[in-house]
Design brief:
- This protein is of the alpha/beta class.
- 37% of the residues lie in helices and 19% in strands.
- The strands form three sheets. The chain has a five-stranded parallel β-sheet, with helices on both faces.
- α4 packs parallel to α9.
- It is elongated.
């Protein structure tokens, strides 16, 4: 049975969520603060996170969750502006649901997020947290070799950049780069065919879901974040009006 962590300080809303989830076969754990939510991540299969919490700003809670775990997060908020949605997604949320919402819509979104999350490990256990990170595979002579298609296994490489799909880790020059779940999926798609332009709509359909209801502006936000984390805008090149492609930056003369 999947355990859903409800982070909601409004008792009426929290109780309604608990009842709906229970009817649909989910176990629940409930808390009303961001600090308490961070303490209850270990047993959660999914988090319903209200962005208007009394102790911590909801986007900050989402960011901290994503630093520690890849548990799916659905942000809930009465503020449904595009900026609020984009910020929540940028901080690591997997979906955004505006209040008020219907029970069946929420259940459908929960099922879709769980389905998309696949077998991503929710968190590192205490023992694993104390073990050293495994050394990344060196980038060898077959730097562009990778499995064909959209398989879930294997390593994708381009120059000094490598992405391990099984471990869900990214390395640049042998150093791990910490990125969010959506950034990982976006980078994996671009790495499948370095130099090939991926169309915006294709990226949105695959990384965010073909029924994505928000603005494609969120794609630009994630690209900007990836460029920053990779240390150069040259890694991801925009094809105006079409989409994006991954390129290997040329070494700059000293």
């Amino acid at each position: 049975m999947r355990n859903v962590l409800i982070v909601e300080d409004d008792d009426g809303v929290a109780e309604a969520l608990e009842q709906a989830l229970t009817v649909h076969g989910y176990a629940t754990c409930r808390t009303g603060t961001g600090a308490a939510a961070l303490e209850h991540l270990d047993d959660a299969s999914l988090v319903l996170l209200d962005l208007g919490l009394p102790d911590l700003e909801g986007h900050e809670v989402c960011r901290r969750i994503r630093e520690r775990s890849c548990v799916p997060v659905i942000a809930l908020s009465g503020r449904a502006g595009e900026l609020d949605r984009v910020m929540a997604l940028h901080m690591g949320a997997d979906d955004f649901v505006a209040k008020p919402f219907g029970r069946y819509e929420l259940m459908a979104r929960i099922q879709a997020v769980i389905r998309r999350s696949g077998d991503c490990p929710r968190h590192h256990d205490a023992a694993a947290a104390n073990e050293p990170e495994p050394a990344p595979d060196p980038v060898g002579e077959h730097e562009h070799e990778h499995p064909a298609g959209n398989g879930t296994g294997g390593i994708l490489r381009a120059g000094p950049l490598s992405l391990d799909r099984r471990a869900r880790k990214v390395y640049l020059d042998g150093t791990e780069v910490r990125i969010t779940r959506k950034e990982f999926e976006l980078l994996a798609m671009l790495l499948e065919e370095p130099g090939t332009v991926m169309e915006r709509q294709d990226i949105m359909a695959r990384v965010w879901d073909e029924n994505w209801f928000g603005s494609t502006r969120t794609l630009d936000v994630h690209v900007g974040s990836l460029r920053s984390k990779l240390g150069s805008n040259d890694w991801i090149e925009a094809a105006r009006g079409v989409g994006y492609r991954l390129t290997v930056p040329q070494p700059r003369a000293s």
